[in-house]
Structures are given as C-alpha cells and as structure tokens.
Amino acid sequence: EVQLVQSGAEVKKPGEPLKISCKGSGYFFNSYWIGWVRQMPGKGLEWMGTIYPGDSDTKYRPSFQGHVTISVDKSINTAYLQWSSLKASDTAMYYCAKLGSYLPFSWGQGTLVTVSS
Amino acid sequence: QSALTQPASVSGSPGQSITISCTGTSSDVGDYNYVSWYQQHPGKAPKLMIYDVSSRPSGISSRFSGSKSGNTASLTISGLQAEDAADYYCCSYTTSTTPPVVFGGGTKLTVL
C-alpha cells in the first residue's frame, strides 16, 4: 500500500526557519515525482512545485520560487519543503503527493503550519 | 484566479445525480487526457476519485464517473448520498505553467 506520512503540525514566529517532511513507502520512491500543495485557510489547492527523487530535478511554480526550497533524501525515502524565513502569510496546510499520470495520485495527511508572533 | 474554472457550489437531494464541470483551454483539458478529480472533506486530505479523465482508482464507488468534451471535463455523482457532501477539485496537465499541473478553484457539494 502506498503511504505518504508527513511530519506534525508546527507553530512558528515570523522570520523563523522551518523544514517539513514527507516519507514515502509501499512503492519505489526514486521513480515517481513528489509534489507539494498549499491550502490556505478556507481556500483552494495551489501547486507549489515538484521534485523527482531519482535525480533531484526540481520545478517550482513561479509564485513560490525563491521563497521555499524543495529537496529530497532518497536514502530514507523522504521529501522536504523548507522556508528560511517564514511570514504570517505562510500559515496554511501543506500536502505532499505522489504523482501518477503527471497528476497527484496519493496524498499525505497534511502538515499544518501556523506562523504568528 | 484559478486556471481551471469550476462552479463555486452545486447541490442535490439524496438519490439524485449531479455534475460538476471543469473548464480549461486547449493548453490543458482540451488537448490532454490527464484530468483528475479529488474529494476533500473538512479537515481531511484530498482523495483521488477519478484519474485520466474517466478511470476510477481501486475502491472508489462506481457512482463516481468522469468525462470530457472539448475544453470541459465533468464529474458526475449518481445516487447522491449524505457522505458525498464535500469539496471537489479538478486538476489537469497543462503546457501553460511550470510545473505542468493546474487545479480548479473547487466546488462545494451540498446534499440537501
């Protein structure tokens, strides 16, 4: 069974760094793109970017480029989403997803990030 | 503004059928058979209901079906049940953005 297990909820202050994780199991992790999706409170799904674990090829949606970093450690089947300096507007639920036929096929349970002073 | 256009809300009574539309362009829905639909209940992660326009993953009820005509994809739910009340999102492969994935704005389904 394919599973994506994300790290737990985080409460941070503006300006602090953060790295959240997504661990895949039940499939060959290196061979499927992983995507990250943002859902702000009460809003829809926004595609942030994708990474191919096999070679770490990474693609960002322009609106997120430069503000987040997507990375992977294929030795432990884990993808990451990180911020060097959080803003209050980063408060959202973040989902990782395994892609199939180019689109999300399996989803993680989500990581709630709250940024507040 | 979302690249794929969905109605904000639809509603139906138990047992009825409803259809949710998802309108794109020839850069996405119109030219590629990579359209997925996701169901999201409050506080839960999205769940794949339809992929590749009309295929159902294992375990998804046959009451859910997908189709496409021109630049518009559709999700039909037949025999509406109370537990179908949720938000539904369409998603398509696209050549107009990087990465090549675009979501619709979401549709809230109310079961009366």
Describe the protein's architecture and organization.
By secondary structure, chain A is mainly beta. Chain A has strands spanning 3-6, 10-12, 18-25, 34-39, 45-52, 57-60, 69-73, 78-83, 92-100, 103-107, 111-115. In chain A, the strands form two sheets. In chain A, strands 2, 4, 5, 6, 9, 10 and 11 form a seven-stranded mixed beta sheet that branches. Chain A is globular, with a radius of gyration of 13 Å. In chain A, 35% of the residues are buried. Chain B is mostly beta strands and 112 residues long. Chain B has no helices and nine strands. In chain B, the strands form two sheets. In chain B, strands 1, 3, 4, 7, 8 and 9 form a six-stranded mixed beta sheet that branches. In chain B, strands 2-6-5 form a three-stranded antiparallel beta sheet, with no helix packed on it. In chain B, strand 3 (35-40) and strand 4 form a beta hairpin. The chains are: A mainly beta (117), B mainly beta (112). The A-B interface holds A 35, 44-47, 49-50, 59-62, 95, 100-110 and B 2, 34-36, 38, 45-48, 51-52, 57, 89, 91-93, 97-106.
- Sketch the major β-sheet of chain B: 6 strands, mixed
Mean pLDDT level of chain A: 97
Shape of chain B: globular
* Gyration radius of chain B, in Å: 13 Å
By DSSP (H or I, 4+ residues per run), the number of helices of chain A equals 0
